[in-house]
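Per reviewer request, we include the raw input and output of the structure prediction for the construct analysed in the revised manuscript.
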Amino acid sequence: MGTCQNISAMFNLKETLINGFENVVSSIAVYPFKPGDTGENKQSTKDCKNKNPQIPVCPFSLKHGFQSYVSASGYQKLELCCLNLQALKGTIIKSTGSWYQVLDTSGKVMPGRIRGKFRLIEKDTSNPIAVGDEVEFKEDPAYADTVQITQLYPRKNHIVRKSNKLSAKRQVIAANMDLGLMIASLVAPRTSLGFIDRFLVCCEAFHIPAILFFNKTDLLHTEGKELLGEIMHIYRKAGYTVLCGSAMEPNTLIELHNKIKGKTVMETGHSGVGKSTLLNKLYPGIGVKTQAINMQHETGKHTTTFAEMHIMPDGTRLIDTPGIRDFGVVDVPVKELSQYFPEFRPYLPQCKFNDCQHTNEPECAVKLAVSSGDISKERFYSYLSILSGEDVFE
């Protein structure tokens, strides 16, 4: 039984031996191999096939321990060329355009690409798969140590924005989050309230709890600290968790660390607000790259160029996203927009018209609440701006 021609007879085993096997053998070859040989006489599977094109390729299931069973049956040498074609489950932990990094359930990370047909599933998105997505994948027969992403599992949530100012397509920033964390600052660079409000609307629309963290408090003088206090009051009154501190002062980060511990958290904000520095301070040793800002224009450079998930020893999963200069609200119907401002909700049933958009309608309870100070003017102006389609705030 030392030739490739005897392959079929060699593996004429009962079906009961192969039920439930986990791997698939793509090609099998048996070689003359005497004890003491160093391998010079061994032929490759490819060589065997070339010499005898009639040799069948015998795909079948391979059970753990089956290889040793066959080897113990008296054959001199057996080589199994295995390709795992079983669908496996994994998590996308990095997106670099057309390539992704997939983390499987054993902790192994592999590069992967989506299949051609898969790209057509969501034509209105610039990236059908995002960091945080749970996917099904198989080994790619065309490339070694690479996988094909074949299926996207249903998301519990995701967050999107317009790809850019001119595009009608959406960009999925991240998926399957427990928290959305906005890193903002009042200086170097300044984060506009309109930008923050657009982020919060997206979180509300996709059922993602949100936290605001104002960084760089160490750079604020007395007036800046007073302004920060007023802004924090606006968002706390709207029902949000709002924290502040500085990546340069680790003791100010304790409460933030406790809020995100053990959760899957997407971190976002303008370039230069200190997202990467903050991650390094929260979890020393993570090694996220940082870069100084342009002090002349108080703008940051894109230190993070692709979204990436960092898995911490305490179970926290941090999705670090590239700095975003604008945030276009998408997938939010105009009639529903007011529902995504939590402080508006108690007043909505009190409006005279059920379809009140809180602009020029008479007897609008929301506008009365703005006039009385129960709803902040800043938040109301953001609502009107989003309603009119002004999606970009830098």
